[in-house]
C-alpha cells in the first residue's frame, strides 16, 4: 500500500455516519498499490474494515471509471453463483470527496499477482486455474433478466460497439502514432463475425489478479474490478484470459510466456478453452483469433489511457502507469499476429 492520493477520511467518515448502518469511527484509510484505474482504499474502523473505490481525480474520458456501474452489477450478483463482495453504499455526490465512490465489505483472502503462483504446488495451481474457469462460466451463465441487468448494456453487435468505443478512447488518449494499432483497428472493423445471438454478462477484465481466493482453498471468494463490465459477448472474456497468459512473466506482464505449463500444473490455452466449453455446453469456438485480436486491441487502448493519465498527472500510480503504457506497441503487434490466425 502507498500513501499517494490521500483520501479525505474526515469527509468520508461524516458521510458514512449518516448513510451506512452501524458505522462507527474513527476511520483510517490505506491506499492499495493495485488498481491503476479507480483508486481503492482499505478503510479501518475500531469494529470492522471496509473497502472504498472512487473515481480518480482530473478530467476523465467519457464513460470511463464508472464506479456507479461497478456498484450496481456487484449488488445485482449478490444472490447469484458469482462470488462478489457485499455492497454497502454508493455515493454519487461529488461534493463529498470530489468524485463518486462506493463502500463494500473487505474480503479476507489470498490474491495472486500473476498466474505463475510461485508459492503453490503444481496441483494447487491447477485447482486455482480450474476455479477461474468455473467462475468465468458462471458469470456468462447469469440470467441477466432475473438479475435485473438486461439493460446493463445496449442491444446490437457487441464487438461493433466495443471496437468503436475503444477506438475513440484510444484516439482521445493517443500520445504518439503507432501504425500497428491503426492497422489492427482497421482489421477488426472489417473482419467482425456475424452476431451469433449470445448476450451475457461480461466482466471485461477477468484475470487472476482481479480475483480473491479463500485463505485455505482454491475457491474464489470475490471477483473484483467490474469497471469494464457490460452486457456483451462471452468470448471477449475468455479470449482476454488467453491474451493475458501470452504476456511475459513478472509483476507487470503477468503472463506465462516461456513457462512449462504442464510441469507447473497450469492449463494450456486449449485445455482452458475446452474446459470452458464443457461447462457451458459448447461444441467449440470458431474464429477464436478474432476474439484474441480484439482482446489485444482493447488492452492496448486501455493502457494508452493509463499512460495519458500519467502524463497528465492524474494516474493513481504514475511510474507504474508509464511502464504499463510502454506495452501498447507490443499489444498492437500481438493483435495483428492473432488476426492472421483467423480461418
From TrEMBL:
Keywords (alphabetical) are: Kinase, Transferase
**Pfam families, sorted:** APH
- Spell out the InterPro entries in the cross-references: ACAD10-like, ACAD10_11_N, Aminoglycoside_PTrfase, Kinase-like_dom_sf
UniProt domain Aminoglycoside phosphotransferase: residue ranges: 29-254
Q: Which CDD domains match?
A: ACAD10_11_N-like (cd05154)
Q: Name one GO molecular function term.
A: kinase activity
User: Is Transferase a UniProt keyword of this protein?
Assistant: yes
Q: What is the name of the protein in this document?
A: Predicted kinase, aminoglycoside phosphotransferase (APT) family
- Native organism: Lentibacter algarum
Amino acid at each position: 500500500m502507498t500513501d499517494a492520493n490521500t483520501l479525505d477520511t474526515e469527509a468520508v467518515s461524516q458521510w458514512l455516519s449518516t448513510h451506512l448502518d452501524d458505522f462507527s469511527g474513527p476511520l483510517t484509510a490505506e491506499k492499495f498499490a493495485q488498481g491503476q484505474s479507480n483508486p481503492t482504499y482499505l478503510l479501518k474502523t475500531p469494529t470492522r474494515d471496509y473497502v472504498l473505490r472512487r473515481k480518480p481525480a482530473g478530467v476523465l474520458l467519457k464513460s470511463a471509471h464508472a464506479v456507479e456501474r461497478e456498484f450496481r452489477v456487484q449488488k445485482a450478483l449478490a444472490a447469484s453463483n458469482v462470488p462478489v463482495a457485499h455492497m454497502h453504499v454508493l455515493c454519487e455526490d461529488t461534493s463529498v470527496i470530489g468524485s463518486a465512490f462506493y463502500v463494500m465489505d473487505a474480503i479476507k483472502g489470498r490474491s495472486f499477482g500473476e498466474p505463475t503462483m510461485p508459492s503453490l504446488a503444481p496441483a494447487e495451481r491447477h485447482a486455482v486455474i480450474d476455479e477461474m474457469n468455473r467462475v468465468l462460466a458462471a458469470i456468462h451463465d447469469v440470467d441477466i433478466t432475473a438479475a435485473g441487468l438486461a439493460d446493463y448494456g445496449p442491444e446490437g453487435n457487441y464487438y461493433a460497439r466495443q471496437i468503436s468505443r475503444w477506438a475513440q478512447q484510444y484516439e482521445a488518449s493517443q500520445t504518439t502514432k503507432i501504425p500497428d494499432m491503426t492497422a489492427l483497428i482497421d482489421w477488426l472493423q472489417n473482419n467482425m463475425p456475424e452476431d451469433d445471438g449470445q448476450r451475457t454478462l461480461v466482466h471485461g477484465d477477468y484475470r487472476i489478479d482481479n480475483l480473491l481466493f479463500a485463505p485455505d482453498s482454491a475457491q474464489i471468494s470475490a471477483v473484483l474490478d467490474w469497471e469494464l463490465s457490460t452486457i456483451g459477448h462471452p468470448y471477449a472474456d475468455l479470449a482476454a484470459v488467453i491474451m493475458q497468459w501470452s504476456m511475459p512473466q513478472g509483476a507487470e506482464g503477468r503472463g506465462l510466456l516461456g513457462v512449462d505449463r504442464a510441469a507447473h500444473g497450469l492449463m494450456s490455452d486449449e485445455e482452458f478453452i475446452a474446459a470452458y466449453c464443457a461447462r457451458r455446453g459448447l461444441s467449440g469456438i470458431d474464429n477464436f483469433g478474432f476474439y484474441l485480436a480484439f482482446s489485444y486491441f482493447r488492452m492496448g487502448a486501455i493502457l494508452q489511457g493509463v499512460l495519458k493519465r500519467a502524463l497528465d498527472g492524474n494516474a493513481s500510480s504514475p511510474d507504474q502507469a508509464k511502464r504499463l503504457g510502454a506495452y501498447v506497441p507490443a499489444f498492437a503487434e500481438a493483435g495483428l499476429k492473432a488476426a492472421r490466425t483467423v480461418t
